[in-house]
Amino acid sequence: MMISKLVVKSSSLNIGTRFLPLLRYKSTMSKTEDDWRAILSPAQYRVLRQSGTEAPFTGEYTDTPASEKGVYECVGCSQPLYKASTKFSAHCGWPAFYEAIPGSITVLRDESHGMVREEMRCSKCDGHLGHIFKGEGYKTPTDSRHCVNSICLKLRNDE
Ligand SMILES: [Zn+2]
C-alpha cells in the first residue's frame, strides 16, 4: 500500500517536471481564433494573426529612442523580443531594431506581394511581427533592419 502510493506520487511528479514547459508552450499555441480576438484589439489581431501591416508613421513606438534600459515584448504573449538598446532610427515609419533577443523570433520566407522577404514571427505565440531587411547600409552592428509593427510590441521599462 505504502509502496504503491509512493510510486504514483513519484511518477506524477516526473510528468509535472518533464512536461510542464511543453504543456505551457502548447497551451499558448493552441489558442483558438476566438481566444486571440478576446486578448487582442481588432487592429492587433489583424497584424499578429492575419499578417497585416499597420500604417507607417502611426505606431506608438515608431520614434521612441534607443535606450540602455527597457525591453520590447510581444503584445500577444509577453515574450521579450528586443532590447531597447538595439533600436535605431531608420526613418522608415515603423520601429526598427538591428537584432532580436536570441531565440525570440522565427524567420520565414515570405513571397507575398510579389516580393521575397524574410518574415518574423514570435517564436512563442507564432504572431506575425514584421520583416527583416539586410544590407541597406545602416550604421548598425548587423546592417540588418528588423522592421516591426509597433502594435505588436509592448515596452517594459522596469529592468
Ligand atoms: Zn508572442
TrEMBL record:
Binds 1 zinc ion per subunit. Keywords: Metal-binding, Oxidoreductase, Zinc. It holds the Pfam family SelR. It comes from the Eukaryota. Its cofactor is Zn(2+). InterPro entries: Met_Sox_Rdtase_MsrB, Met_Sox_Rdtase_MsrB_dom, Mss4-like_sf. It catalyses: L-methionyl-[protein] + [thioredoxin]-disulfide + H2O = L-methionyl-(R)-S-oxide-[protein] + [thioredoxin]-dithiol. The keyword Zinc applies. It is an enzyme of class 1 (oxidoreductase). Residues 33-158 form the MsrB domain. Transmembrane segments: none annotated. Its EC number is 1.8.4.12. Belongs to the MsrB Met sulfoxide reductase family. PANTHER family: PEPTIDE METHIONINE SULFOXIDE REDUCTASE 2 (PTHR46081:SF8). This is Peptide-methionine (R)-S-oxide reductase. The lineage of its organism: Eukaryota, Fungi, Dikarya, Ascomycota, Saccharomycotina.
